Amino acid sequence: MSTTDLPEPPPAPRGRERRQRVQAAETGLAVLKGLGRLGGRASLSMLAAHVGESPAKVHRYLASLVEEGFVTQAAGSQQYLLGAESIALGLAAMRQAEPIRAAEASLGRLREALSLTCFVAVMGNKGATIVRFEEPWLPISVNARVGSVLPLLWSATGRVLLAWQRDDARLRAMAEQELAEAPTELRAQLDAADPIGRLAESVLAAGCAVVKDTNLRGISAVSAPVFDHAGRVCAALTVLGPTGGFDASVRGTAAKALREEARAVSAAMGFASTGLNRAGGMPTTPTP
Amino acid sequence: MSTTDLPEPPPAPRGRERRQRVQAAETGLAVLKGLGRLGGRASLSMLAAHVGESPAKVHRYLASLVEEGFVTQAAGSQQYLLGAESIALGLAAMRQAEPIRAAEASLGRLREALSLTCFVAVMGNKGATIVRFEEPWLPISVNARVGSVLPLLWSATGRVLLAWQRDDARLRAMAEQELAEAPTELRAQLDAADPIGRLAESVLAAGCAVVKDTNLRGISAVSAPVFDHAGRVCAALTVLGPTGGFDASVRGTAAKALREEARAVSAAMGFASTGLNRAGGMPTTPTP
Question: Where is region (Disordered) located (chains A, B) (predicted)?
């Protein structure tokens, strides 16, 4: 409404956005979402109560959802169920979900907020592999870039990917080999009796991993896990910078921001944290 | 609108049905479905072309889909992607999908069309177990009911569940044991060199299994597989009747109707047959 000559305001004002949308489509989607929240099946009255609309109105939207195959009505009952199109939609969404893209906005925010190098890594066939890398305005000189493979035991990234997949035989074997090949001073940092098991436990307990100078001299790093819809760790989100140049502790600002962004990326990957303790951000006791 | 005093007409006339639905909701769902069909990500112009609407119109619906979390827009690109709500919806739909309910209407249709006993069976911990049973108007007296466990090798139902899970060690062991305990005349019906492997191959090739008098004296049965969203066999749909009383061949009327209904139940379970040859109805060559 204003005629003042302003540069394009990002984001668009709320009112304008709303006018460009379609109210009836949103109500239909809210009914669909509500049926999902109720476990995928519900009676008309339960569903109407859940979405806060009249049964008559919800019934009309359900007729459209049935027509499009997203919902079916159970034969001889008053129950509405999510249908085949809902499954097909979910499968298509899962297939295209991937952590690099889901982490894009988070990487940018972390870089701006912390002025540290930020990256996303996944388990490749050679180990924990950097797949996306963002440098701050004043780059930190490190020997790491997209494609770099990081150790499982001596990098924060590797520790995250290892800890949540500690029962994976391949990862375990890779970690055992790293341990056998490690210089004495690194091995001395781990538990003598159960070095890998205890390391994994401490990472799970903290909800993130922290290293100082173990992988790159003079560099500290913090890493947090990204989970997919099945609750599996699918990536690690990591920040690194000069040791002493930032608080690289599990309760520091960087770790806190990182865990928060990793949770946002997990949510975008379809991960629902409710009830999944093993993937929780900060459990008070180590996961058994 | 009519004032004529008629009993409630089932089903409702098409026109009335349409008026009770919500056009804008259906357009929104069509856009959502279209994005799924395009692999879960597409540009506005691709999507508009796919659903046959103008880009301006599709853009408004996308704004609503984004608002409700079903779709996200990739940062710095013109691509729209299926979002976290689409994954959550699919997961809820998959969790509640179950073959007994999905097969309900099919069982009724089969019973009416064929006048045979129809049932759904799944693999329980004791073997192939009947979980839903429908009798025709003139019941056939058979020693089988809900809860009955059928042999893997000598019932059509068991053969279907075995054939599509022939690499499952537990099922293989159960079948081996049945073979060891079988009387000579039953063993003689199977291949001497590879009895279980060849039996499975023939069932896969036909897309269904047929038995005559092997499990129940005087009874023939035909069974077809139900697949879930992951392409796994999750149930068998079976019809049975007196031997000689119906065409119990793999190309007979009963087998044809059964395969068709099993395909419908699979679709309701989220199974998409495209490209999944191993789960195809009637491949011309046995699956390797």
Answer: 1-22
Do B103 and B237 meet the contact criterion of CB atoms below 8 Å apart?
Answer: yes
Partners of B209 in the β-ladder: B223
Domains of chain A: 14-96 (1.10.10.10), 99-279 (3.30.450.40)
CB pair distance less than 8 Å for B86 and A89: yes
Bridge partners (DSSP) of residue B132 are B120
Mean pLDDT, rounded, of chain A: 86
Name which residue leads in pLDDT, A31 or B77. A31
CB pairs under 8 A between A and B: 201
The residues, any chain, with a CB within 8 Å of residue B110's CB and separated by 6 or more, are: B116, B118, B134, B237, B239, B257, B258, B261
- Using alpha carbons, select from A218, A217, A234 the residue that is nearest to residue A226: A234
User: What's the maximum distance between 2 C-alpha atoms anywhere in chain A?
Assistant: 73
Percent of chain B residues past pLDDT 70, beyond the cut? 88
CA distance B275 to chain A (A): 15
Whether residue B268 and residue A91 make contact (CB cut-off 8 A), yes or no, is no
User: How close A235 comes to chain B (CA, Å)?
Assistant: 17
DSSP label at residue A145: -
For residue A97, is pLDDT > 60?
Answer: yes
Q: How far is A285 from chain B (nearest CA, A)?
A: 28
In chain A, which residue's Cα lies nearest the Cα of B272? A88
pLDDT at B96: 85
In angstroms, the CA A18 to CA A12 distance is 10
Contacts of A84 in chain B (CB under 8 A): 267-270
- Identify which has the larger pLDDT, A88 or A143: A88
> Which pLDDT band holds residue A159 (cuts at 50, 70, 90)?
very high
Closest-CA residue to A209 (of A200, A219, A222): A222
Contact A17 B87 (CB under 8 A): no
The pLDDT tens digits for B164-209 are 999 999 999 999 999 999 999 999 999 999 999 999 999 999 999 9
Distance between CA B152 and CA B233 in Å, rounded? 14
User: Tens of pLDDT along B75-86?
Assistant: 777 899 999 899
- The reply to whether residue B95 touches residue A40, judged by beta carbons under 8 angstroms, is yes
- Within 8 A of A89 by CB-CB distance, chain B residues are 32-33, 36, 82, 86, 89-90
